[in-house]
Design a protein that fits this description.
Length: 296
Amino acid sequence: MRKIVMIIFSFIFIFSIAGCSSKTENKKSEEKVIKMGFVPLKNSEQLIEDVKPIAEYLSERLGVKVEAFTASNYIGVVEGIGSGSVDFGIIPPFSALLAQKQSNAQPLLTSKGTTGKPGYTAELYVRKDSGIKSLQDVKGKKVAFVDPSSSSGYIYPGAMLVKAGINLEKDISYQFSGGHDKSLQLLLNRDVDVIATFDGVPERYKKDFPNAVNEVEKLATSDMIPGVMVTASNKMDKELQEKLKQALLDIEKDPKLKELFKKMFSITGFSDVDQDAYSKVEATAKIMNVDLDKVK
């Protein structure tokens, strides 16, 4: 009888251990993951690999796993923030405005550029041997924009051309490349005559396109664009939003991480959002006949 009782207790012990192990495994499988969104600045797989140190830093600071996400186009990240499948994005100002307008996304921080100011500029680049010396010379040429929702890759440089008297639908032929690096490649390959992108793009991609620094030059520079914005889904936990803000504000204290942000995004830190500054983005979009409520 005693042996039987011992056998029963042994089975109970084994099953209870198995049950605990199963619960632990289920808990691990249900581990909370925060999605950090980026627009497609470069090849998606490479971008996700490059931002791993950022994801690891934020995972440690937030106490939850952070994974990077990038869509095939800019609006994909905006839609992800709206649906909550992307918890927050480090995204250009026009995309941030779209997210705010369309899904009440929360603006958390504005990035500071290499000058220390909360902003950057768009540029029109041409090949040095193109013979294009003025905005008026762009008439009749082939232009590569990046994406219809890109501030530096479409909205601001497009507005520069419009102000110079260029009708985008009649006076030029244009295409959307899908990425700043892809636009640079089109220019170097002579597939287009002009590209619209951010300041310093030849230096940013000199590893991939070492000839760019010597072969291309700026044609025109835009007004200051408000900085890239950290934008949270309105479904993201408020306490996590505050932790995220503080973690990103603290990167200026971490030389290695600060250098990574500078190298990848020309970001040297973050500051509080001046929402009034972003009204200029919306005004510039109107020059391009872009309605924030209707962009899809």
